[in-house]
Amino acid sequence: MLNRPREDRFDEVHTGSSFSEDEVEFLVAIDRYQRRTHRRFLSWHEVLEVVRSLGYAKPPKPVAAPKEDD
Description:
Number of helices: 3
Strand content: under 5%
Radius of gyration: 19 Å
Largest sheet: none
């Protein structure tokens, strides 16, 4: 039997708080990563890996418009 995290368990742990759908998705993804890798504390590298697995990416830098000659 798989130990799947319940999405509502985060509200139980932090009574009086409510999380947005995005926050719950992130918490569940972190929990799954921790269970899969058997690591309780993640490095920032691992957190970034989880964030990227959710589809987040750094937006491209804006391209400066060429200067017009007068």
